[in-house]
Amino acid sequence: MLLFLDIIPYITIFIFGITIGSFLNVCIYRIPLGESIATAPSHCMTCGRKLKWYDMVPVFSWLLLGGKCRNCKAKISVQYLIIEGVNGILYVVICVVNGLEWSSVIYCFMASALLVLSIIDWRTFEIPFCLNVFLFVLGVAAVILDRGNVVDHLIGMICISGLLEVLYLVSGGRAIGGGDIKLMFACGLILGWKRIILAFLLGCVIGSVIHTVRIKVSKVGHMLAMGPYLSAGIFLAALWGNTWISWYLSKLGL
């Protein structure tokens, strides 16, 4: 009985996560098209039929409908199911690792924004400005919650983004995208300078390994979208960065 009561908060968090995940799918499809994510009603992408509330229950509606539109029977992308499920899982992981803290709320919304921008950047090689603005707002909230380390956050805001800005100017925009600079600017404010440096290093390593494999296997071009890899580094650094940095410094005797 006690075990069940202990997991109730995480079941609630998962349900909240998949509900937000449903909205993330709307963002992924509509933001690149310049469509409203707030006013336009949800509809089938094939027949245009307006969806009923029972057609939009996260995860379960897709499963019950067999991944097809109730009206025209057109296939509904499995992306809807995956994004909803992944967002719910990320929320639970964040709250398990970081605890039921206010900072976990910031990390959850950060993870959702990173998930959306990763998919969009993967497809379009562009990171929407509105998502970086949202991340910056989360950064302001993080500073308010961590008022004793304001300088740490402010340095984090510029240490990597400033380096990337120089690289952008020197290369004429060929080496790095403007969206990546803004991403590290906003997330640097959230994480602080130590973890954003770690996030950048992790993102570069992850990107190098995965893209090299993709070049060999899928024959993709050398141009890569850095957003997904930087996002992975940011997520890992947010949850485990302090532990990894402390371990590394201890090995150096610092």
DSSP strand content? under 5%
Overall mean pLDDT: 90
Main sheet: strands, sense, barrel: none
- The low-confidence runs, each spanning 5 or more residues with pLDDT under 50, are none
N-C termini distance: 46 Å
Helical amount: over 70%
What spatial form do the alpha-carbon principal axes imply? Answer: globular
Q: How many DSSP H or I helices?
A: 9
Number of E strands? 0
Query: Structural class per helix/strand content?
Result: mainly alpha
Query: What is the succession of H and E elements?
Result: HHHHHHHHH
Computed Rg: 20 Å
Structural commentary:
With 254 residues, the chain is an all-alpha fold. Helix content is 71%, strand content 0%. Helix 5 runs parallel beside helix 7 (178-191), helix 6 runs antiparallel to helix 7 and helix 7 packs across helix 8.
Summarize it:
By secondary structure, the protein is an all-alpha fold. It is built from nine helices and no strands.
Quickly list its features.
9 helices, 254 residues, 71% helix, mainly alpha
